[in-house]
From TrEMBL:
SMART domains: AAA (SM00382). Keywords: ATP-binding, Cell membrane, Membrane, Nucleotide-binding, Phosphonate transport, Translocase, Transport. CDD domains: ABC_PhnC_transporter. One of its GO terms (molecular function) is ATP binding. Residues 4-249 form the ABC transporter domain. This is Phosphonate ABC transporter ATP-binding protein. InterPro entries: AAA+_ATPase, ABC_transporter-like_ATP-bd, ABC_transporter-like_CS, ABC_transpr_PhnC, MetN_ABC_transporter-like, P-loop_NTPase. The lineage of its organism: Bacteria, Bacillati, Bacillota, Bacilli, Bacillales.
Length: 260
């Protein structure tokens, strides 16, 4: 299993907003970390930097002992294969089948995208896709269009797609924000069961304090780009965490919106 290190990460947007200010932490192999913070705290900017969708102004990010901030796109590919993503809005292709959406999780492991299309995928990949769907309890929906499922079911498909990738670390960006409380808790149970049984590291952005305290082993909290908490859940005071969500109102600039 691999580790993730964020070292002195700073991100300044063109309007002058400092979305991240010298943020540093390490996620150890197999560790479950929850990232908390008010809108504008820099959580999403941090995730975009970790996934290389955004370049930091300074500092670096090390995944599997490799500094990804200096890599070209071609050299990033083998690192990205090790990082699974679960998104708030699922990012499924709605007019394709559940089975096909899961097969796309193998894109990083095939020579071309052609080999991930159902009619041309190998028997091995097809069987693996069904195993991943079975793990999330949706193998019986394999032929159904993705947009015919409920929100909770679609997020389960997204988790199956992530499993198809064989990641070693999982980044979950508000994975239950679009779900009702019951479906959200079911998805969290499933996601945490999977990462624990496979010994995966997981970093998840969450807004729900109770969920964060229940599932996370460790809480990292940001406030206006600064890391103000990095502590084991067992040592945290809930009353202090609550203060994160009672900040003074402020007008979001372009950079703050980007760093929400």
């Amino acid at each position: 299993m691999i580790s993730l290190e964020v070292n002195n990460l700073t991100k300044v947007y063109p309007d002058g907003t400092k979305a991240l200010d010298n943020v540093s932490f390490k996620v150890n192999p197999g560790e479950g970390v929850v990232l908390l913070g008010h809108n504008g705290s820099g959580k999403s900017t941090l995730f975009r930097c970790i996934t290389s969708f955004e370049k930091p102004t300074s500092g670096n990010i090390v995944i599997d002992e490799t500094d990804i901030t200096t890599l070209s796109k071609s050299k990033l590919r083998p690192i990205r294969k090790k990082v699974g993503m679960v998104f708030q809005h699922f990012n499924l292709i709605n007019n394709l089948s559940v089975f096909q959406n899961v097969l796309f999780g193998a894109l990083g492991h095939t020579k071309t995208s052609f080999h991930t299309f159902a009619p041309f995928a190998s028997e091995e990949l097809r069987m693996k896709a069904m195993d991943c769907l079975d793990r999330v309890g949706l193998s019986h929906f394999a032929k159904r269009r993705a947009d015919q499922l409920s929100g909770g079911q679609q997020q389960r498909v997204a988790i199956a797609r992530m499993l198809m990738q064989d990641p070693e670390i999982v980044l979950a960006d508000e994975p239950i924000a679009s779900l009702d409380p019951k479906a959200g808790r079911e998805v969290m149970d499933l996601l945490w069961e999977i990462v624990q049984e496979r010994g995966l590291s997981v970093v998840s952005i969450l807004h729900q304090m109770d969920i964060a305290m229940e599932y996370g082993e460790r809480i990292i909290a940001l406030k206006k780009g600064n890391m103000i908490i990095d502590e084991s859940v067992k040592k945290l005071d809930r009353a202090f965490l609550d203060t994160l969500y009672h900040q003074e109102d402020f007008t979001e600039t372009e950079g703050e919106k980007a760093g929400a």
